[in-house]
């Protein structure tokens, strides 16, 4: 799971936020020929369209639509979905490509996708809500809430602060590097308990002493999810739903239940290929439990815009906790293709080509890659593509550029 801030490593590790997945994800997807671009972007988010939303097909072809069509043609993604919102909240949606390479079915407008590591921002939000309620202290040791849980070679929960989990400065080893190959193959339908994931990580030595540096690790968010459950006495899925999803009306976002391998709403199918030029493999149905608090959510581009806009707009956190979330540390050079990326508490800050920056995360999980961004000025844009290994060299950079251009458009 990864995010764009840490895109490079994202592609190397797990359900990615562009801030992290492993080398395996750097392999490009095989092309299946140029796929047709759909001319049917459409109205704002399903069931929640503002009355002043603009139907994309009611206006001349704009630059975003051209960019999306070019992306599918040149980067060879099976499908791309984009949602944008202006400062007044007016939404516009775009699609290109096909939802199913076999049937050539059209891409559903604002269709559901696996959101991968964008889940981390939801998880961090709930932890920070608990901080605001006085139930969690960011600078307390993890041991305070999860006694005797973190023990291993160079690993001790008495030395790791809650803040360091959310910030990726804990030094906890990354579990996804040890299961990613299986998740793409024989273990695609395997159910993992959260403790299974943690146990995989704890078999390995700490990456560094807590606080010494920054390194993206999905393990941090498995521990954060366990912390939420211990403090609230309730399941993580319930807390994410009650405290975030339902609270701001994300009608097409959900945390899959145990054994739920499908995507229930309208969606484009997700694909993978073992190497460039290889036949695309449909990986839409997977057991996403290996992502859990770090990458299990299903959402839509429109809902991701709504979530990050609401979060940055102060609808989910008190000012003090939002300020903590937005307090960032430098991401190492080479971790992202974009220079100057910084990471807060489950939230990344990425410079824009036109000046200023966007806040978001990003995510990658078999079949899907998503990249959302919101500016301090109130613009929002999210892209989702239906492959999480590049179909062509530089494909993800091209996808990210669509978001940058949309947010920079006058």
Based on DSSP secondary structure assignment, what is the total number of beta strands?
A: 17
Rounded to the nearest angstrom, the radius of gyration is 19 Å
The biggest sheet, with number of strands, parallel, antiparallel or mixed sense and barrel status, is: 9 strands, antiparallel
Broad structural category: alpha+beta
Average residue-wise pLDDT: 87
Cα end-to-end separation: 32 Å
Tally of individual helices: 12
What is the H/E string?
HEEHEEEHEEHHHHHEEHEHHEEEEEEEH
The backbone outline, from C-alpha atoms, is: globular
Q: What is the helical fraction, as a range of percent?
A: 25-40%
Strand content range: 5-15%
| Unreliable stretches | 3-60
**Oligomeric category:** single chain
Tell me about this structure:
This protein has 410 residues and is an alpha+beta fold. The protein is built from twelve helices and 17 strands. Strands 3, 4, 11, 12, 13, 14, 15, 16 and 17 form a nine-stranded antiparallel β-sheet that branches. Strand 13 (348-351) and strand 14 form a beta hairpin. The two termini are 32 Å apart. 59% of the residues are buried. Residues 3-60 have low confidence and may be disordered.
Question: What descriptors fit this protein?
Answer:
410 residues; alpha+beta; 9-stranded antiparallel sheet; two-stranded antiparallel ribbon; 17 strands; 28% helix; globular
How do the strands and helices of this protein lay out in sequence?
Layout: H1 7-13, E1 14-17, E2 20-21, H2 63-75, E3 79-85, E4 91-97, E5 113-114, H3 119-132, E6 151-152, E7 155-156, H4 162-167, H5 180-184, H6 194-202, H7 219-232, H8 236-245, E8 271-272, E9 281-282, H9 292-295, E10 298-299, H10 301-312, H11 319-325, E11 329-330, E12 342-343, E13 348-351, E14 357-360, E15 363-365, E16 368-375, E17 380-385, H12 395-408
Antiparallel strand pairs: 3-4, 3-17, 5-10, 6-7, 8-9, 11-12, 12-13, 13-14, 14-16, 15-16, 16-17
